[in-house]
Amino acid sequence: MHIPVLLREAVDSLAVRRGGVYVDGTLGRAGHAREILLRGGAGTTLVGIDRDEQALAESSARLSELSDVNVVLVHGCHGSVAEIVRGKGIGEVDGILLDLGVSSPQLDEAGRGFSFQADGPLDMRMDRSRDLTAASLVATRTEEELAEIFRSLGEEPNARRIARAIVRERAARPIETTGQLAQLVERTVGRHGPHHPATRTFQALRMAVNDEIGELERALDGGLGLLKAGGRFAVITFESLTDRIVKRFFAAHAGRMVSLQQGGEQWEGSLPRVCPVTRHAVVASDEEKKDNPRSRGAKLRAVERMAA
Fold first, then answer.
1. What average pLDDT does the structure give for the chain?
2. Structural domain of residue 19, as residue ranges?
3. Can you give the CATH number for the domain in which 159 is found?
C-alpha cells in the first residue's frame, strides 16, 4: 500500500479552488490526486500523468469512485506536462503537483529492480516500455561515464572505485541483478553507518535510467508556463540534488529587489514571476515519519504565479 507523503501539507499548499483545474504530474497511486478532487468538489478537473502503466490502471479504478469530477489520465512523463495539458485543449491551470519519490509498490516489487532489499533483475525503469535498463547501463558505459553518473546523480564519494569495480566484475560475468550490484558495492567500499553502501549507487542509476533531472527541469519550466495568475506549483523531493534544483528554480522566478545607482529599486529575476508559498522547505512531522518511514527525506516547496 502506497501512503502519500506530506498529503495534507501538499494539498494545502495548492489552495484548491472549487471547480478548478489541476495537474498531478506524477500520479502514482492517486493519493494526492484524490484529495485534490475531494477538496475541489463538483466540476473539478484533474489531469493525471504517470509513466508507469500499472500505476495508471490502479489510479483509474480508484478515481472512478468519485462523481461529478473530470479525470483525464495520460501515460507520459511529467517533463512533457505543458505539451500534454495543451494537447487536451486546456489553456491554463489552477495548480500543479509533482511528487518525485519512487512509489512503495515500485520499491517493494523485486521484479522492478529499484531496491536491493530483495534480489531481482537490475531494471529500474519507471516506464517499462522504454529500452534502457540499469543492467544495460552498467554493461555498456565506460568507467569514466559510470563514475560521472555516480558522482553527479548519487553524490557518491567513492564513485571512481565503484565504477572501476563494476568494469572489472562485468569482464568476468554480467551484472544482472540488484543483489549482485549491492554485494559488489559493499565489497568495494565496505559497510559503515546505518545506510547500505549501495544506496547512492542505486539512486544514481535510477535517476540516469529515467532521466529524472531532465524530466524535472522540463516539468518546472513547462509547468510554470501553464499556471494562471494565482495558480500554484508544489513539488515534493526526496534527494538533496533534486531539492536544490527546485529551490534554485523557484528562487530565480521569485527574484529580488536590487538598488539602482540612480536611486530607487528594481526587480530582477526570471519570468514568469512567482511569490513563495513556503518560505522554507516543509518536512514531514515526527508522527508521519513514525507512521511512514519513507517520508523522512521528503521536502515540499511551493510557489504562486503572480499577475504579469
1. 94
2. 7-104+212-305
3. 1.10.150.170
